[in-house]
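anyone seen this seq b4? input:
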Amino acid sequence: MNLQPIIELTRGGLQECTHFGAIAVVNVRGHLVAQVGDPNLLIFTRSTLKALQALPFVEAKGPQQFGFSTAQIAMLCASHGGEPMHVAAAEDMLGKAGLTYKTLRCGCHVPGLFTLLDQAPPPDLVFDERHNNCSGKHAGFLAHCVGQGWATEDYIAPEHPLQLAIRRDVARAVGMAAQDLKMGIDGCSAPNYAMPLSKLAYGYARLASGASDSEFGESFATLSEAMTSHPEMVSGTGRNDLAFMQAGRGDWVTKVGADGVQVVASKSRGEAFAVKISDGNKPALFAACVEVLDQLGWLDEAQRTQLAPWRAATLRNARGMHVGDRLPVFALATP
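predicted toks r here
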């Protein structure tokens, strides 16, 4: 089967829900280390792709050209919560490129912080494209267009030179031919690419390897160091990427994508794993990732405790009663 049971929910001792998925663990040489289900399952990468989408800009020394700080480089890779620090960073990035938020083509949505907290935004908060979780990525897109002398009006069009350069470099980073990347349109209106789960993991293993990568070493080092130095800019208050990278103490490079995708890479181990939960359930995804970390032996006791809320093993109702459990039901297997 392409998909295997990953996480089960029980209630009263009976199985109530099962979340299916696949997992691929790959090393920096592209070798499959472990798997659950089909490691080559074709999946859309969603926001896990952001660090690789930044490659053309970073390769061209764009961050240096426009004076982007390390925190702003982290914003290139972000699915942020639209907090004041994120909005200010996006606005400054655009300003350094001589642009305003009105140039952004990512659309506008309620800031992610309020979605996460299940709260209505304050009535006096006026939000716009800068609050979009992808505004940092798009600010980088636009800065690269300015730096290369490309048009900014249609920068998200698949045939735009920016998007062609991104497709080229993403393919190089994951070891594929550009024409083999299946294209779809992401929530922020930019092209996104589907690839085998193992290829996504391989791209992140290379990203985490930083300067040791023979092709993108300097750029990978710039991006991975920015992400681990400023995880609060990659995500934000109460968010998964922040919690995981803090627990990783500078070693783990991680990114969540919409609809059940997450990648975690270890700089010191030269490995990364990618997880896809087929129904997109976030608690199941996060629980699965913690379990993979545990099975791989990447967790010490302090990290296990730190990530316990993301394993969310105990189900409680509104009164705090223990009503069920969220249990991993997979074991990593060597190929």
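The longest strand covers residues 14-27. Residues 282-296 form the longest helix (15 residues). kinda curious what u guys think
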